[in-house]
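hey so u asked for the seq, here:
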Amino acid sequence: MIHVCPLSRLEETVARTRAEHVLSVINAATPVTLPATVRPENHLFVGFNDILSPQEGLIHPSLDHVEAILGFARRWPREAPLVVHCYLGVSRSTASAYIAACALAPERDEGEIARALRAASPIATPNALLVEIADGVLGRQGRMRAAIAAIGRGREAMENEPFEIRLG
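ran it, structure tokens below
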């Protein structure tokens, strides 16, 4: 099970789910206080801005970021849930959870995973650039990108509510 939340709900989500692994996908300068129950070696901080193309002074999602996310997801032992968060729980974290779900369940249809994501969170708007890069890395031939485009933009909100994505 992968749980997604905003930074403001990280501690509560980890406590409620008893997660032991946390993936932080957030601006490089944003401080993240890790819940005491999560060991430092079970945490990955991937710092980049929530943008869809290069912009002066900002860090756009890149192949290195996707490879770090995939490596962490693949090392996650799945004995306890994984929590993925960004600042608002809307774009970077939802894209990262979708990418992890596609990587960890390669037999599942990309559209099915995207529809499950939308059903779990009407607010989710996965970062399209992050998904596009992962689509290439995972050899999904544009299907991940198309599936996320098909669910469309989520509804506007100040931040997302915590939600979960099942791998199977």
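DSSP finds six helices and five strands in the chain. The helical segments are 10-17, 63-75, 92-104, 110-120, 128-137, 143-151.
lmk if thats what u needed
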